[in-house]
Design goal:
Elements: H1 3-28, H2 35-47, E1 50-51, H3 52-59, H4 63-75, E2 79-84, E3 87-95, H5 97-117, H6 123-144
Antiparallel strand pairs: 1-3, 2-3
Helix pairs in contact: 1-5, 2-5, 3-4
Length: 146
């Protein structure tokens, strides 16, 4: 197997492991969110009320996947859909008080999880890793824009 293929396999494997670890750590702390639901909530915590299409764009997911995440978060009473007064075709998604109550604990769990997986790496190594990920991400964006 060539180096590029091995790296692709490692990246994919790490993604699955990270999702599983974060979900397990959230569950252990009593946070009833999957890792993908956490990402939706994190986007909303950082940006405030926004249209579903913007959430989909930030997550690089299709509209149907995001609809399922929003539906499940709405059933948990963590978000609500708000019809936009200027355009009734657009629903903004906003965090409820119950969703806000999860913010601190959830971010702490995510931060601790990331710190634990980067244990043993120096700041320089992490800076290099981040820079390399940015380059790969930009390459993918360039390929997709063609």
């Amino acid at each position: 197997m060539g180096r590029n293929k091995r790296i692709g396999v490692y990246v994919n494997m790490l993604n699955f492991k990270l999702i599983k670890l974060l979900s397990a750590n959230l569950k252990e702390k009593g946070v009833n969110l999957t890792s993908e639901q956490f990402i939706v909530m994190d986007i909303l915590w950082r940006n405030g009320k926004m249209p579903q299409s913007s959430i989909a764009a930030q997550m690089h997911k299709d509209k149907n996947s995001i609809t399922q995440f929003i539906d499940s978060l709405e059933r948990k009473k963590l978000v609500r859909r708000c019809e936009r007064p200027t355009d009734h075709r657009i629903n903004d998604i906003e965090v409820t008080a119950q969703g806000e109550a999860l913010h601190k604990t959830t971010i702490e769990v995510a931060t601790e999880t990331m710190q634990s997986i980067f244990n043993g790496l120096s700041d320089d190594e992490l800076d290099t890793f981040e820079r390399l990920l940015q380059v790969v991400n930009a390459n993918i964006d360039e390929i997709n824009s063609r």
